[in-house]
Design brief:
With 373 residues, the chain is of the alpha+beta class. The chain folds into two domains: 214 residues, no CATH class; 72 residues, no CATH class. It has ten helices and 14 strands. A hairpin with a 7-residue loop joins β5 and β6. The longest helix has 18 residues. It is flat. The N and C termini lie far apart (50 Å).
Length: 373
């Protein structure tokens, strides 16, 4: 839902990324009263070479309807209302609304890990690590934790049905709460906004984007190599590639009832089970990387779509174990699997195991990391 006021605010955004600090400052001043600006940076005095700043607008729909399962709350596509901490005209962003901001802001989920011993099914602690590039080009990682506690002293007055439903979704809900803490910290996001504010103002997120000089033949060649996933083929492996220049890690964990301060999401957790049989995916005994000049590389065929090169020996082993599917290490369901990059997929599309999900691969990774086979 886009209102006329929101549309007029969006019209103030430049039609192209901004190339200079002066342009950026003028634009931010022009929109500061017409949009909800999401950035922890107050003033910008430096932009890295060959980069511009893109201002990305996101509309949040404040419309909510009654929740039949919880009479004190109302839920909508992007927001929810809970009388426990919201005034009648206030809305809090739910997981979908916040995920839209996360996507627009270029935030990557790096890791999701359990922090408890799993001995008590009524208690769950999860840590989420996210990464985003600041306007000065540095990568920042933030780690936030959340504990959901459904033991008797925390759920006093709850019905048996409510406790059972909460326990069924305890890991999913805890993950959502930890992720929300990360997003709020990254963007200086408020916990709630008035419905009038959301109707009148779009969210605007400044994002650093590459702006290479395509008139330079070498740069043009490098851009094409990256787009085709052939960087290692043309230039060789780069020491320290993907290294985080600067990392700010914040870890917190607080025990709280299910609905104390964040949005509880509906839906059951995915049932997981390790893969068994001859095609058991263990990715810990691949041959060492081949030197330059060796056999041609294949490309990772994971549905996550990043299409990075895969060494010939690794590709051959993947083809044998996964029924013809080629995967790089972060996409292979083994010790190096990166759950955050795949969590939104319904299946990893492995030919030998077509129903193998990212959740199952993450459980497998944890099993291998713990010494299990």
């Amino acid at each position: 839902m886009t209102t006329a006021t929101q549309s007029s605010a969006l019209a103030l955004l430049p039609p192209r990324p901004l190339a200079s600090i002066e342009e950026l400052r003028k634009t931010l001043v022009a929109i500061q009263d017409r949009a909800i600006l999401l950035t922890p940076v107050i003033g910008v005095d430096y932009l890295p070479p060959m980069h511009h700043v893109s201002l990305r607008g996101v509309f949040i729909d404040p419309t909510v309807t009654k929740d039949l399962k919880n009479p004190r709350s109302e839920r909508g596509r992007d927001c929810y209302f809970d009388s426990k901490f919201c005034a009648p005209n206030e809305r809090a962003l739910n997981k979908q609304g916040l995920s839209r901001l996360l996507t627009a802001g270029g935030v990557s989920v790096i890791d999701i890990a359990r922090g408890d011993d799993r001995k008590d099914p009524r208690v769950c602690t999860l840590y989420v690590t996210v990464e985003v590039q600041q306007l000065d080009g540095k990568l920042i990682r933030i780690r936030e934790g959340k504990t959901t506690d459904l033991r008797a002293e925390r759920t006093s007055g709850w019905s048996v049905e409510r406790i059972a439903m909460a326990q069924e979704r305890i890991e999913e809900v805890t993950e959502t709460k930890a992720l929300l803490r990360c997003i709020r910290q990254l963007f200086s996001l408020q916990q709630k906004y008035t419905s009038e504010e959301l109707l009148e103002k779009p969210f605007v997120i400044p994002v650093l984007v590459p702006a290479p000089d395509m008139n330079d033949p070498e740069i043009k060649r490098m851009v094409a190599a990256k787009a085709l996933g052939l960087e290692d083929v043309l230039y060789g492996s780069r020491p320290g590639a993907g290294k985080v220049i600067e990392a700010e890690v914040v870890t917190r964990s607080s025990a709280a009832p299910l609905d104390a301060d964040d949005e509880p999401e509906s839906g059951a957790a995915t049932t997981s089970a390790p893969v068994s049989g001859e095609a058991d995916p263990v990715y810990d005994d691949l041959p060492p990387p081949q030197p330059q000049g060796g056999p041609p590389q294949a490309v990772c065929g994971c549905p996550c779509g990043h299409q990075v090169p895969v060494k010939a020996a690794d590709a051959a082993m993947c083809m044998e174990r996964l029924g013809g599917s080629v995967r790089c290490r972060p996409c292979y369901p083994g010790r190096d699997f990166v759950y955050g990059a795949h969590k939104d997929l319904k299946t990893l599309e492995i030919k030998s195991h077509p129903d193998f999900t990212p959740k199952m691969a993450e459980d497998r990774r944890k099993q291998l990391a713990g010494g299990g086979r």
